[in-house]
């Protein structure tokens, strides 16, 4: 299975966040699980796709600020526009402050 097929099975775009991958997996698993009326083959294929996508999805490094997820910047919505600001929780360093 290629990564493009895996993203298509889960209904995701490449570069999806960890939370989007998790939510897509729960949606697909709920539809394809044999106990919910799906077939075992579909569920197994969806499960393989989830494990493949999860293995290549970047995660937040240990010790990173959980407000900005280690980037040092955070996105703030202001009306209809989005503004990138320095993270106040970590001071823009991207690391957890003691």
Notable traits:
98 residues; alpha+beta; two-stranded antiparallel ribbon; 2 strands; 41% helix; elongated
Q: How would you describe what is shown here?
A:
With 98 residues, this protein is α+β, with helices and mostly antiparallel strands. Helices cover 41% and strands 12% of the residues. It contains three helices and two strands; from the N terminus they run H-H-H-E-E. It has a two-stranded antiparallel ribbon with strand order 1-2. Strand 1 and strand 2 (81-86) form a beta hairpin. Helix 1 packs across helix 3 and helix 2 packs antiparallel against helix 3 (40-56). The longest helix is centred in the middle third of the chain and has 17 residues, at 40-56. The radius of gyration is 18 Å and the shape is elongated. 16% of the residues are buried. The mean pLDDT is 80.
Determine the mean pLDDT: 80
Give, in spatial order, the strands making up the sheet with the most strands: 1-2
Q: How large is the share of residues in beta strands?
A: 5-15%
Order of helices and strands: HHHEE
Shape designation: elongated
Q: Give the helix level as a range of percent.
A: 40-55%
Number of helices: 3
Largest sheet: 2 strands, antiparallel
Poorly predicted sequence stretches spanning 5 or more consecutive residues: none
- Counting helices, strands and paired strands, the structural category is alpha+beta
The count of β-strands is: 2
Cα Rg? 18 Å
Distance between the termini: 44 Å
């Amino acid at each position: 299975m290629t990564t493009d097929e895996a993203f298509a099975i889960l209904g995701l775009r490449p570069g999806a966040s960890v939370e989007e991958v998790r939510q897509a997996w729960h949606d697909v698993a709920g539809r394809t699980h044999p106990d919910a009326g799906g077939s075992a083959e579909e569920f197994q294929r969806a499960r393989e796709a989830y494990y493949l996508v999860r293995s290549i999805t970047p995660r937040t490094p240990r010790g990173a600020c959980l407000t900005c997820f280690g980037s040092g910047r955070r996105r703030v919505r202001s009306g209809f526009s989005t503004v990138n600001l320095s993270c106040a929780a970590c001071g823009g360093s991207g690391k957890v402050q003691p």
